């Protein structure tokens, strides 16, 4: 078990580590996500997926998926981010590592249109099945809005 | 229960439970596949209460969004308020007045008690223990009265403000609160006498919906449900937010992880919350209740993730700011939504009646599931 | 005593009136009179019991209960009945129409027939059959058919599950119910309800057959679908079980038939175990009603105290506990009777 998150770079030199306002943030290239996550869970003790969501940066033409991990019971926290192409936002599903990701990935798909490859049942979860578009994208047209 | 022998041909049926059903606790729908009375498949179908609160947040200022948090877990409004305002404060780096911190703790714990009472009452009701419904609801009414005293509303409270709380407590609040806390053990006794010790209730709940610890963590189950599976993990202790590090309390833990333990642990947590409130009352300092906060709140560019121990589990707010007066993105990680994900797993192989017990014991609030 | 003869007097004067008429006319009109009497008894009881149930549950739950309509809310049930009469009678599109329509009427037929063998007071029995107890149990079990019809024809999965439960539950609980009654029959030496009551003049059978009484009570609770054995309706799981699709007066018929059945099994319990109409000072029919209401109160008390049992527990409890216990009771009773005969009469 490794204590220091810097040691992650020993395994994956391509990740960058920065200190956010609240917790350490790890930027991971999209193709390395699954092995990094596995490493974080198995050897760094981040056994609990505390949050999974995405943010649409339409002006920068990217979608950023943010994973918040937690180590139970020490309550240590870490954020993992991957950047996706806005036109084709595809990333590997982490359901095989944390089953908790199942509903959260469905939600992120539903609201932001991120495709999670390898997800067992990637369908809309909150919005109606026949809906067009993904509401949390910045260019989603609201009815009656300004 | 289907006969597999002979020429008896049996067939599975699909049963739509909800969205209008007495025991789905709101507009939740489960598509059950049944083999006789036995559940062989469960599909959660949610979204009937989806209001797009996360999208709404992008068009509201930081202050304007507070009332929306009440509508998440509408049974524990104060806790949602607390989670949200602390998220914003985390980015602002302001000092919260002592008195406000203590008031926040009192209100948050009252909210937790109220939420647990609803769970206890509705679970009793779901096994048809009608009479046991009343003591928790009777006492919860008094909590709502207390809330009405401080902020004028009973359910959608919006009491917390960025930098403090909305009003100071009125005269007569503390005596009433003391009285309520003194009466609380009586309610717990009544519930224990009416339902917890009942043989039929035990037979209905013990060993039903068993959730072991590893599965619970893997599926992201938190809060009382996780503690009923044997791990004393409580963010108030593990990573204290606000002033929770100043209070002495235990984290009750039970080991079976079945519906019965998930029921009992709520009763134990009510006692602990009461203990915290008592300490907060005795240490309540005088002073201002709100820090100096600019009229228009502008947050620096950046992002923050803040988690609190909600009534149903860990409630997280992920706030991304682009430096403006409105959130660029606000994600709400709600415990009910994640806890619901484990329901199919623990219900398969049990009867329809057990499924109802499992929904109740997982304790979901649809306002929080669908957001 | 004047009070004693109120009801028997009505019947006697009716007979007098018809003295000259041919026998078939007399039988027909007397039968009609009994039917009217029983129906009045059922409906008044059902109306009042709904009120009573609400009041009793309210007091158990720190509430007041209905108190707006009439003194102490006494007219509440009447208002509910009137409201139900005015409701639209909905037949689901996929329903098996005729079966659906007939079921609520059918459920009332056995409920009414049961009262024929209940001795309400001295000489107050509509048909004193020599196999009265047997008749009662046989007719009571046909209720299942009506429930199954209602549940099946509604073409709804909840009603189907409810009626499936009803069949499983009633068929299995019939057996210990019958066996528990057998102990009483052995003691009285008769299946005739009036004879059984007569035999209890000195000592009630609840004292001689306490185990049988408990088994009877439990099995009867299951028989009439009262909590904790109300799985057929199982509101939290099955919404209203077989009655889910029924509206208005048809629903009310189902609903009141439950109360009619509750009254009839309570009446049977009083007849078999609590000495029937025997009692000092008061008129016999009043004693009967008092005992009846004590039984009904116990049923209600149980309902508002216990949660609902699970279906597999329900069935295994019946087959593994009640049935062996009732068989053992028959054995003990038989041996007891023989020993008693040996001691008092000096012969087997």
Biggest interchain interface, per-side counts = A-B, 40 and 42 residues
- What is the CATH superfamily classification of chain B? Cytochrome-c3 Hydrogenase, chain B
CATH architectural designation of chain B: Orthogonal Bundle
Our estimate of the beta-strand percent of chain A is: 25-35%
Helix content, binned percent of chain A: 10-25%
Shape of chain A: globular
Give the CA-CA distance, first to last residue of chain A: 52 Å
> What is the mean pLDDT of chain A?
83
Number of structural units classed as domains of chain B:
1
Q: How many strands in all of chain B?
A: 8
Q: Span from first to last CA of chain B?
A: 38 Å
Largest sheet geometry of chain B: 3 strands, antiparallel
Range of helix content of chain B = 40-55%
- Annotated CATH homologous superfamily of the domain at 5-87 in chain A: NADH:ubiquinone oxidoreductase Nqo5 subunit
Q: The CATH topology of chain B is what?
A: Cytochrome-c3 Hydrogenase, chain B
Architecture of the domain at 5-87 in chain A in CATH?
2-Layer Sandwich
- How many strands, what sense, and barrel or not for the largest sheet of chain A? 5 strands, mixed
Shape of chain B: globular
Query: How would you write the strand order of the largest sheet of chain B?
Result: 1-2-3
Structural features, described:
The complex is a heterotrimer of chains A (146), B (371) and C (348). Chain A has 3 helices and 7 strands. Chain A is α/β, with parallel strands linked by helices. Chain A has a domain at 5-87: NADH:ubiquinone oxidoreductase Nqo5 subunit (Beta Polymerase, domain 2, 2-Layer Sandwich), CATH 3.30.460.80. The longest helix of chain A is centred in the C-terminal third of the chain and has 12 residues, at 101-112. Chain B is of the alpha+beta class and 371 residues long. Chain B contains 15 helices and 8 strands. In chain B, the strands form 3 sheets. A 3-stranded antiparallel beta sheet of chain B has the order 1-2-3. In chain B, strands 6-7-8 form a 3-stranded antiparallel beta sheet. In chain B, a hairpin with a 4-residue loop joins strand 6 and strand 7. Chain C has helices spanning 6-17, 23-60, 76-85, 97-113, 132-141, 143-153, 157-188, 193-199, 205-208, 210-223, 235-238, 248-273, 284-303, 311-345. Chain C is mostly helical. Chain C starts with 5 loop residues before the first helix and ends with a helix. Chains in contact: A-B, B-C. Chain A binds chain B through residues 20-23, 47-51, 53, 55-56, 66, 68, 70, 72-75, 77, 79, 98-100, 102-104, 107, 111, 124-128, 135-136, 140, 142, 145-146, and chain B through 44, 46-47, 50, 52, 54-55, 59, 90-91, 217-222, 231-233, 235, 238-239, 302-307, 314, 316, 318, 320, 328-329, 331, 333, 337-338, 340-341, 370-371.
């Amino acid at each position: 078990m490794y204590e220091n998150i810097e040691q992650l770079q020993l395994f994956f030199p391509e990740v960058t580590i920065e200190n956010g306002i609240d917790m350490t943030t790890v930027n991971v290239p999209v193709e390395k996500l699954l092995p990094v996550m596995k490493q974080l869970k198995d050897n760094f003790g981040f056994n609990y997926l505390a949050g999974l969501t995405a943010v649409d940066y339409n002006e920068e033409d990217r979608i950023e998926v943010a994973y918040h991990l937690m180590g139970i019971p020490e309550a240590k926290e870490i954020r993992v981010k991957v950047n996706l192409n806005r036109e084709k936002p595809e990333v590997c599903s982490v359901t095989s590592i944390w089953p908790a990701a199942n509903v959260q990935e469905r939600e992120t798909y539903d609201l932001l249109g991120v495709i999670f490859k390898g997800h067992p049942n990637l369908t809309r979860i909150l919005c109606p099945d026949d809906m067009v578009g993904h509401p949390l994208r910045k260019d989603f047209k609201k009815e009656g809005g300004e | 229960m289907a006969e597999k022998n002979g020429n008896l041909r049996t067939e599975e049926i699909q049963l739509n439970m909800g969205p209008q059903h007495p025991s789905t606790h709101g507009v939740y729908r489960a598509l059950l596949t049944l083999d006789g009375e036995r559940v062989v498949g469960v599909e959660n179908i949610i979204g009937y209460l989806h209001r797009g609160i996360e999208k709404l947040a992008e068009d509201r200022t930081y202050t304007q969004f507070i009332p929306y948090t009440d509508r998440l877990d509408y049974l524990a409004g104060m806790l949602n308020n607390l989670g949200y305002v602390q998220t914003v404060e985390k980015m602002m780096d302001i000092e919260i007045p002592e008195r406000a911190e203590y008031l926040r703790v009192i209100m948050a714990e009252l909210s937790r008690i109220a939420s647990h009472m609803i769970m206890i009452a509705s679970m009793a009701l779901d096994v048809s223990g009608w009479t046991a419904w009343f003591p928790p609801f009777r006492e919860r009414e008094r909590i709502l009265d207390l809330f009405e005293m401080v902020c004028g509303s009973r359910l959608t409270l919006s009491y917390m403000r960025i930098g403090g709380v909305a009003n100071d407590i009125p005269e007569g609040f503390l005596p009433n609160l003391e009285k309520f806390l003194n009466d609380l053990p009586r309610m717990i006794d009544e519930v224990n006498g009416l339902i917890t010790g009942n043989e039929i209730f035990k037979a209905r709940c013990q060993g039903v919906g068993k959730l072991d610890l590893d599965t619970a963590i893997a599926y992201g189950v938190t809060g009382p449900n996780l503690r009923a599976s044997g791990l004393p993990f409580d963010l108030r202790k593990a990573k204290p937010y606000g002033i929770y590090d100043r209070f002495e309390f235990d984290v009750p833990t039970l080991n079976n992880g079945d519906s019965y333990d998930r029921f009992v642990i709520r009763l134990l947590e009510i006692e602990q919350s009461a203990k915290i409130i008592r300490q907060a009352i005795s240490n309540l300092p005088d002073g201002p209740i709100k820090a100096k906060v600019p009229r228009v709140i502008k947050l620096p560019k950046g992002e923050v993730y803040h988690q609190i121990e909600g009534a149903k589990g860990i409630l997280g707010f992920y706030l991304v700011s682009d430096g403006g007066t409105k959130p660029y993105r606000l994600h709400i990680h709600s415990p009910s939504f994640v806890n619901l994900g484990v329901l199919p797993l623990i219900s398969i192989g049990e009867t329809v009646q057990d499924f109802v017990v499992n929904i109740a014991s997982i304790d979901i609030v649809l306002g929080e599931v669908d957001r | 005593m004047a009070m004693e003869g109120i009801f028997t007097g009505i019947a006697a004067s009716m007979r007098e009136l018809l003295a000259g008429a041919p026998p078939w006319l007399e039988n027909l009109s007397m039968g009609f009179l009994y039917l009217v009497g029983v129906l009045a008894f059922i409906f008044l009881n059902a109306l009042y019991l709904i009120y009573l149930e609400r009041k009793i549950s309210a007091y158990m739950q720190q509430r007041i209960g209905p108190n707006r309509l009439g003194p102490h809310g006494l007219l509440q049930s009447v208002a509910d009945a009137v409201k139900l009469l005015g409701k639209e009678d909905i037949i689901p599109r996929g329903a098996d129409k005729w079966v659906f329509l007939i079921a609520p009427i059918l459920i009332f037929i056995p409920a009414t027939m049961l009262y024929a063998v209940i001795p309400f007071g001295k000489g107050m029995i509509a048909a004193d059959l020599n196999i009265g107890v047997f008749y009662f149990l046989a007719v009571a079990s046909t209720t299942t058919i009506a429930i199954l019809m209602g549940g099946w024809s509604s073409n709804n999965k909840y009603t189907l599950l409810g009626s499936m439960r009803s069949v499983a539950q009633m068929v299995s609980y019939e057996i210990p119910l019958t066996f528990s009654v057998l102990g009483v029959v052995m003691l009285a030496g008769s299946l005739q309800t009036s004879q059984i009551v007569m035999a209890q003049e000195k000592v009630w059978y609840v004292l001689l057959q306490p185990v049988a009484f408990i088994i009877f009570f439990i099995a009867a609770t299951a028989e009439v679908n009262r909590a904790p054995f109300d799985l057929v309706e199982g509101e939290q799981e099955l919404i209203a079980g077989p009655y889910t699709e029924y509206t208005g007066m048809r629903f009310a018929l189902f609903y009141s038939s439950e109360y009619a059945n509750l009254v009839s099994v309570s009446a049977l319990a009083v007849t078999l175990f609590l000495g029937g109409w025997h009692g000092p000072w008061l008129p016999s029919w009043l004693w009967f009603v008092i005992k009846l209401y004590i039984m009904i109160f116990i049923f209600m008390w149980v309902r508002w105290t216990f949660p609902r049992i699970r279906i597999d527990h329900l069935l295994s409890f019946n087959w593994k506990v009640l049935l062996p216990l009732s068989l053992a009771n028959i054995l003990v009773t038989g041996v007891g009777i023989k020993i008693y005969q040996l001691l008092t009469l000096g012969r087997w």
